[in-house]
Amino acid sequence: MKARIEEDKVLLGSEGYALYEQSGFGRPQKDGLRLSPVEALYLVYRGRIEIPGYDFDTLLVRFSDNAHMIRSFLVYRDIRERGYVVQTGPHDFRVFKRGEKPGKGESQYMVRVLSERDLIDFSVVQGEVRTTLNMRKQHVLAVVDDEFEITYYEVKLQKLPGLEVTPDPKPAPGLLSSISVIINAGADLGYDQAFYGKRLDDSRIVLSTVEAAYLIEQGLVTIQLGEATLTAEEYCARIQDSDPELDKKITVYRYLRELQYIPKTGYKFGHHFRVYSGRKIHSEMLVQAIGPLETLPMNSISRSVRMAHSVKKKMLFAGIHDEGIVFTEFARIKL
């Protein structure tokens, strides 16, 4: 079956309709079938069509203005050979349920192709996920590494439900040691029950800087400096140089506490927080705070997902936006 190239499109005559009817290739037109470049590459690669003057190698070069072409071809081939029908758009690919095809079924996945070094703009990803959800599909990233291996990630937006309200601890006096805050709090004040800080002895608890900032802000911890009471803003100014990520961490910490979750440091897991739902023994989520306009390379996200998976937790990125905080979950999947 012979095809021809017109600009960035590959066209087949009316005999091409069979490729669409049988296997969902291309888009039918009045006088034949229009193939996308990646579909044409695959069909030439498999020897199902011929394009005069081109073999697979020269056709790949012909379409190499698209820097993603080799990655797109590899992902397209992989998904096709897993038994799915694939069409281009509205992201990179639309993947139908196994055994289904255009006109005779519905798509299941919307797939975006990335390299391991692509920067992830969370506002862009969140917008694409919302579009996918509005179409009632699953949003998938197909990430091609530098050795051209493919890893698939499902991306979801998570709305954390509020938990049962628990009483706040009672106010406690504190003292400032450099940037550390130690409070005088016996067991009756409720700090142990609310999982704040680490107990030094029966009467003292040392707080993390984020916990201290939050509790001072809430008026639950007071620190006297001479005749003045230290404000949350003054405390944050003191510790800012030691923690340049403080502002975004406090923003996410405050949000989680208001929903009655228990965030504790996630240092051992390489992230900002490990998060408990109520009084459960093990944390269920790792959370990384992402500031406005902040991006992360995909290989960094991959490391985060692998770590979370290894300790049986969800990996959430808490994006801070003008309209609030949006939690984005990345998880490896097998198609």
UniProtKB/TrEMBL annotation:
- Highest taxon listed in the record's lineage: Archaea
Q: Work out whether the entry's keyword set contains Cell wall biogenesis/degradation.
A: no
Q: Where is the tRNA intron endonuclease catalytic domain?
A: 70-152, 247-324
GO biological process terms, alphabetically, are: tRNA splicing, via endonucleolytic cleavage and ligation
Q: tRNA intron endonuclease N-terminal domain location, by residue? A: 1-55, 173-236
InterPro entries per record: tRNA_endonuc-like_dom_sf, tRNA_intron_Endo_cat-like_sf, tRNA_intron_Endonuc_cat-like, tRNA_intron_Endonuc_N, tRNA_intron_Endonuc_N_sf, tRNA_splic
Q: Which Gene3D superfamilies match?
A: 3.40.1350.10, 3.40.1350.150, tRNA intron endonuclease, N-terminal domain
Any one GO MF term held by the record is: nucleic acid binding
The record's listing under Pfam families reads:
tRNA_int_endo, tRNA_int_endo_N
Question: What cellular component GO annotations does this protein have?
Answer: cytoplasm
**Which terms are listed as keywords in the entry?**
Endonuclease, Hydrolase, Nuclease
Q: Does the keyword Glycosyltransferase apply?
A: no
- Xref: PANTHER family: TRNA-SPLICING ENDONUCLEASE SUBUNIT SEN2
Return the protein name.
tRNA intron endonuclease
- Naturally occurring in which organism (per UniProt): Methanospirillum hungatei JF-1 (strain ATCC 27890 / DSM 864 / NBRC 100397 / JF-1)
